[in-house]
Specification:
Number of strands: 26
Order of helices and strands: HEEEEEEEEEEEEEEEEEEEEEEEEEEH
Structural class: mainly beta
Bound molecules: 2-acetamido-2-deoxy-beta-D-glucopyranose, calcium ion
CATH superfamily: Galactose-binding domain-like
Helix content: 10-25%
CATH architecture: Sandwich
Oligomer: single chain
């Protein structure tokens, strides 16, 4: 019988409460507190006529060095500052820093999404860190003509009490130079279970960094060579340029809600090591399409699977935004590399400067049909007959 004793019951209740508390304490997916910098400091925003005393205060953030709340339309040294979202953002001066404490679940992988723009023509970068992990993200390349981009960076939580820190490592002569940050969000990533009939993990790209429902630029995934801490579970970005994670609300996506747009020709490479059985024949299939962002044709990818590399062009078709393509290969080892990059360096035809490219989705690696196996068993059968003949 399935009768439970009162002690078991109360223990279960206790567990339930504890797990509930843990969920409440850990940061929720989405914007950090005042992550969009739209909460007014005591006394109000400077652009609303507040006194200069309150100008440097940014609610819910700890500031070090010259951090300034900037307003959209604000001019600095003759140029208009770009605020990615809403009316306000922060600008980090030389060596300046903003940070916020967050509660995390130890051992879990988190991804931080943020938007940034440069204020000067010089090389600018941002160091994002959650101790002991950190990465310096290069803002030199502007991927979209709007003047700002959204990036994601992932890390593993080593402590429950963590501190998200953004630092401008720059030392410019002009102290009014320095990156502008806005819309900082966090998301706990889960690693999708590997499907039985597909050797590729997260081949449909449905699990990835936080994306704002109404943000239309997608999320750039900069270089990340560690597959354990990737904003795109299973995949690494092994080139020095970024690729763009896109959603179906603002782009054409072959399957589900998310896909990947390859940018910057062979400077934007994604790859994954998949588990294979040596000497077995496999087929890698995938969707190849356009993102619906007026990207100038032609679009093509270089698709790698083991020792095979194929240049596949997307054929525009009025009835579909994508086609399926495949690459056949024979595995040489227990781990086989699959990878993709864009053959061309494409830009949008409307603004002539935003980077764009072919879209890939639904990447599958499966053992190909039993043809080869049949041949092999035929051979074995022949060999057995040979042996029997010898014995006779
Ligand atoms: C997105 O939506 C939020 C809440 O609905 C709003 O505060 C924000 O301004 C919007 N952002 C953009 C870029 O439209
Ligand atoms: C980034 O900042 C963290 C701490 O804020 C520091 O430990 C790390 O060395 C910095 N990384 C780089 C590349 O400057
Ligand atoms: C698109 O669909 C229509 C009707 O189903 C068909 O006649 C046409 O050939 C298709 N076009 C292409 C390019 O496949
Ligand atoms: C791969 O093999 C399948 C049959 O197993 C075939 O239909 C397909 O055309 C092949 N693909 C290429 C690119 O050769
Ligand atoms: C066996 O393999 C050979 C190539 O090694 C191929 O030409 C032939 O079609 C295969 N036979 C069968 C029955 O699949
Ligand atoms: Ca804002
Ligand atoms: Ca997808």
């Amino acid at each position: 019988m399935a009768s439970t004793s009162p002690t078991t019951k109360s223990f279960r209740l206790f567990c339930l409460i504890v797990s509930h508390l843990a969920v409440i304490l850990a940061a929720e997916d989405g914007l950090l507190i005042n992550g969009d910098f739209e909460t007014a400091p005591t006394g109000g925003f400077a652009d609303d006529g507040a006194t200069s005393d309150s100008r440097d205060a940014v609610p819910s953030w700890k500031l070090t060095g010259t951090v300034e709340l900037v307003a959209s339309g604000q001019k600095q040294g003759g140029m208009i500052l770009i605020v990615p979202e809403g009316k306000h953002a922060v600008r980090l001066g030389n060596d300046a820093q903003i940070s916020q404490d967050v509660k995390l679940e130890k051992g879990e992988i988190y991804s931080i999404t943020f938007s940034a723009s440069r204020t000067c023509a010089q090389l600018e970068s941002l160091n994002v860190s959650v101790s002991p992990a950190s990465q310096t993200i290069d803002l030199q390349t502007l991927y979209s003509v709007q003047g700002w981009d959204t990036y994601a960076w992932a890390f593993q939580a080593e402590e429950e009490d963590a501190n998200v820190v953004f630092t401008n490592p720059g030392m410019e002569d002009d102290p009014t130079c320095g990156p502008i940050i806005d819309d900082i969000a966090i998301k706990k990533l889960f690693v999708p279970t590997k499907p039985k009939d597909n050797a590729v993990l997260n081949g449909d790209f449905e699990e990835g960094p936080w994306m704002f429902r109404n943000a239309s630029l997608g999320v750039l995934l900069p270089t990340n060579l560690d597959e354990e801490t990737s904003s795109l579970p299973g995949w690494i970005v092994e080139s020095n340029r970024a690729v763009r994670y896109i959603d179906s609300y603002h782009f054409s996506v072959p399957g589900g809600k998310r896909a990947l747009e390859l940018l910057s020709g062979k400077e934007g490479i994604i790859s994954q090591m998949v588990t294979t059985t040596p000497n077995k024949p496999y087929t890698m299939s995938f969707s190849l399409g356009h993102a619906g962002d007026t990207c100038k044709q032609p679009l093509a990818v270089m698709a790698f699977a083991g020792d095979q590399a194929e240049n596949i062009h997307y054929t525009p078709n009025a009835n579909s935004t994508f086609q399926t393509a495949n690459v056949n290969f024979t595995a040489k080892a227990e781990r086989t590399r699959v990878a993709f990059y864009s053959v061309y360096y494409n830009t949008r035809s409307d603004d002539m400067s935003s980077l764009c490219g072919p879209v890939v989705d639904d990447i599958r690696v499966v053992v190909s049909g039993g043809v080869r196996g049949l041949n092999l068993s035929g051979l074995r059968f022949g060999f057995m007959i040979l042996i029997i003949m010898f014995m006779v």
